[in-house]
Amino acid sequence: PSRLGLAHAPAHKKPLRSKQHTCFLRPAAAPPPPPPPVALLRRTELCRFSGQKIYPGKGIRFIRADSAVFLFANSKCKRYFHNRLKPAKLTWTAMYRKQHKKDIHAEAAKKRRRTTKKPYSRSIVGASLEVIQKKRAEKPEVRDAAREAALREIKERIKKTKDEKKAKKAEVAKSQKAQTKGAVQKGSKGPKLGGGGGKR
């Protein structure tokens, strides 16, 4: 037996015991789920001189005596503005680039990317959707025949109105001729003799 054995231990000494510490741990609670990602709206502003984008927390704000607010991208833009330089004369400003058509290809690409709205059929005043669809489904021969008939009718109507106008004009001319003839016959009594009451 070993020297530290319990059999050889003196009577006055207690046998060695290993101290066991009992810990009462609560079961670990599951951590709360992370909040959903919030889409941060980055409200950008434009530089008053160069036209560059200015992100929040950047740029220089200048308030004039008349309470007009100016925002500049950097001290260079601010200095040029106060020195009354024209942004249209500096090649790196947005105004110059726009005037000299430098970013045309980018604008064209943006325009191309825009989605076109698909047209959809709907009824309009004076024609229901069924009537419109029926007209669309018509054969071209039928449509041409209807068009020709409508044109013929319009031409006939115009011709009729022209004939009526001509007839009216002829009647008016006839009546005027008769009136002038009568006036001439009434007035022809012979030549007037005597000088009348002239100066003496």
UniProtKB/TrEMBL annotation:
Biased composition range(s): Basic and acidic residues: 157-174
Ligase among keywords: no
Keyword field: Ribonucleoprotein, Ribosomal protein
Region (Disordered): 103-122, 157-200
Domain TRASH, residue spans: 47-85
Pfam families: Ribosomal_L24e (PF01246)
GO terms (BP aspect): cytoplasmic translation
Family, similarity comment: Belongs to the eukaryotic ribosomal protein eL24 family.
Protein name: TRASH domain-containing protein
